[in-house]
Amino acid sequence: MLKILIGATTAALMATTAMAADFKPAVIFDMGGKFDKSFNEGVWNGVKKFIDETGTEVMEFEVTNEAQREQAMRRMVRRGATVVLGVGFAQADAINAVAGDNPDVDFAIIDVSWLDQPNLRQYAFKEHEGSYLVGVAAAMASESNTVGFVGGMDIPLIRKFACGYVQGVKETNPDATVIEVMTGTTPAAWNDPTKGAELAQSQMDRGADVIYHAAGGTGLGVIRAVADKGKLAIGVDSNQNGIAPGSVLTSMLKRVDVAAYDTLKSAMEGKFESGVNVLGLAEDGVDWALDDNNKDLVNAEMIAEVKAARAAIIAGDIVVHNYDNDGECPAEFEKRAISASLSADDITSEIKALSARLDELESMLK
Amino acid sequence: MTRLPAWIEYLLIPIMNLALAFAVAAIVVMLIGESPIDALTVMINGAFVYEGALGYTLYYTTSLIFTGLAVSVAFHASLFNIGAEGQAYLGGLGALLVALALQDWLPIILMIPLCIIGAAAFGALWALIPGWLQAYRGSHIVITTIMFNFIGAGIMVGLLSGSLMRPGQSNPESLLFEDSARMPQLHSLLGELGIEIGRSPLNLSIVFAAFACFGVWLLIWRTRWGYALRAMGASEPAAHYAGVPVPRMIVTAMCISGALAGMMAINTVMGDQGKVTLGFPAGFGFTGIAVALMGRSHPVGIILAALLFGALLQGGSELDFEFQTITREMVLLIQGLIILFSGALSLMFVPWMERRFARKEIA
User: Is B103 within the bounds of a domain?
Assistant: First the structure.
């Protein structure tokens, strides 16, 4: 009996050591690519921190079309991955299918909260809460009583950012005007800094002096244009205060890096837990950024106000409306759904370039 | 000018272009410190040999055949349809609407043709408007089709994040196709017959793609309409003088082109994803232009070019898997080189060949 028990313990011990030795993490980045200056890069930062600390090799893949998501996950599993991290809600259906087929492998996904698999860990963020905070800061910093919002692609997630922001602004200063604009309707809207700068410029022309962006790489153009004019920008996802020190009021932090790091770390230590993690202000999943770069831009009054709002949200005294719940935003704001992107000159030069190209192609065809 | 023998024009020159592209790509791979032989082996294995690899290659090929054919039909009329991307996108909407309306009542044998008709009709509609504007108002087709790509993207985002969005989740994507409206995948079909093949999204759409190739060949080279179309493509005033109703031909050609592009949706939407997702054409509409150019706008050429691009796509993603140093940007670079040498510089060897073979003919 004792012998069997010892045998069993040794076997169990060996299994644990074997698992630790076989620990093979994999990350599937989504279409933006891992250096998208935004969401995927945030995950990459967490993964990189994990690699630097532990020296573990992490398998990675960047998908370029729909079919590759499931393919990449299955491929990682076949190559012996013990934990697979998916990035972004576009991978939800793929990870759901693959996790269901591979109950022995751990899976995790960021920005998803609605799936149900026993071996799947899900992270979602209360972006509306973080956006509310920077909205409070924007309303206090604005002298013109007009603030702006530049979104990336016009999808519900970004409207959720905008909606939280508008609520924060309006709650702090009911007379303030918020100008909202989305960059476009194709994924190119995430990576168009030139257009970001144009949109920011047009908002500044209309009086905005603080502009919050949730537009990935496009937002870098927003920050640059705003800095050139001596106005204030608000960064997103990671701490962007340092991009233009003195011109970035604060940043809305969304700690996808922490989520990625925690997932890999806990899996490595054998403490992986499945389930849904919805991270808001209370869980430090979202926050606003205060550091040396913006300490001269925020005064004590502003800090006090934002901290009060933060505490009230955590305590439940302020409930920030979540756009995801009903697809509507209670706060009112001036909305220009999609920007008019091309000027007459742009169109003329575009047409010229295209017809030259057309002639070339036609002659090639003949 | 001497005409080159067919085997040189259609076989030797493309092979030389391809070899040159691979040679330059090999230098790039060497520069980043990997072995080009290893990389090529991985690419070939990844495209054809690994389990399920051939399935993925053919799956991509299917999409590219549809968009390549679409672009080629317009090419024959001297029309440059760069709106295949948007037409495919809208085609997905057409298939989706048919599926949502009827999938609970009709059996799969009726649903598949109906959804295909839906996809083709919406694709055709999205090409009809630019075609009409070109034919009757003189708006350049390049400008209008590219603008329609954006309008299409706008409509789809609006619908997918609005009324057609699947509830209970936050990804802008449509409701699901039921099994009755899905294109059966080959691995499950063959699985039922007892033949095991690797899992891949390859589905029955490839059969429809083959029919489409044959249909286009028949239409362009074996009908009066096709003859009139090619005459118009060669010289519009001459065709007009000969009694070809030019404006109507333009509109019809664009509709056929759009319908073919729209049918690309049946491969991705009905065959693989089972839903319409944001930006699902993923550039295949634009790659279709390269496919049509490389395939000299002939169905056989298009099949070969689509196969090449499909293999590059699938083999290229394997490179990304196998080598940490080769990122997807590198893969894109290699694909770009091949397009550059076999598309844009495809005539580079022609003068040299002509000198060489012309001399022989004289002697």
Answer: yes
